[in-house]
Amino acid sequence: MAKKSGFNYFDSFISMANHAYEAAQYLDGIVKNFDPSPTVLLEKVQGIHEIEHRADDERHEVITHLTTEFMTPIEREDIMEMIQKLDNVVDHIDDVMRTVYMFNITELSPAIVSFAELIVRCTEAMKATMEKFENFRKSRTIKEYIVKVNEIEDEGDLLHLDTIYKLFGSELSSINVIRQNKLLDDMENCLDACEEVVDTVERIMMKNS
Description:
- 79% of the residues lie in helices and 0% in strands.
- By secondary structure, the protein is mainly alpha-helical.
- The protein is globular and about 60 Å long.
- The N and C termini lie close together (9 Å).
């Protein structure tokens, strides 16, 4: 591993993970207290988008330091990949709320509530992974958090499989099937994005061991 720079990239990774966790909690609150009125939904869309915007600012700051610093703690392309994967998680959570609004979804199934809870749990485990990442050689728990993210993503796969199967066998109208299907896909994408983050962490750990 190269000598550390003055800027702490690992702190930025943690900050990005915190943005994802904050967005997940915000989404969970919306889902559990769902108000389908357009004015309220648009306000909620803007609320999550503000979190997404802060994550973008963090990503831009990291890129700025990468272009000016000679030495970095891990390879530049790994830092760039890490920050982009973390940003993707926030983007996908933002997409969920945009889908609810743009597709004019007025009712949420119990599966959507379950998915929102999984996203909170997954981003929380991802955040814990980031908090251990800088000192991964000494950490006794980072692998546990990585495995936890993988396990939650597996739960999401099963929930998605079962829910989509029931959705296309239901008596809902075609338009409502399309709406619910899109929303379920977007929520599963959030879990997939979290798994991509910890997969990247594992690869970087192996590379620097």
